Amino acid sequence: MQLFQVTMRLFRVTMQLFWVTMQLFWMTMRLFRVTMRLFRVTMQLFWVTMRLQREKYLSKLIKYFL
After folding, report:
1. Vertex 57, ends 43 and 38: CA angle to 5°?
2. pTM for the full predicted model
3. What CA–CA distance (Å, rounded) separates 16 from 8?
4. What is the pLDDT of residues 2-17, one digit of tens each?
5. d(CA 25, CA 58)
6. CA 53 from chain center: how many Å?
7. Which residues of the chain fall short of a pLDDT of 70?
8. pLDDT the model gives residue 36
9. Is the Cα torsion angle 39, 41, 43, 49 positive or negative in sign?
10. Rounded CA gap, 7 and 33, in Å?
11. Nearest to 30 by CA among 40, 42, 22
């Protein structure tokens, strides 16, 4: 009987630990997804600004040559 109780307690503790680790894992996954989305948005903004700068530069060059 004592052994059974000890094993049950161990099982309960391990289950709680597993539950906590799963929740932590899901939280980190969500954070990673959000950071990836933010990174993608910032990269798109960077590319847009680079294109705008290049177009501005090209227009200046065209004006200079014309």
Report:
1. 10
2. 0.54
3. 12
4. 999 999 999 999 999 9
5. 49
6. 29
7. none
8. 97
9. negative
10. 38
11. 22
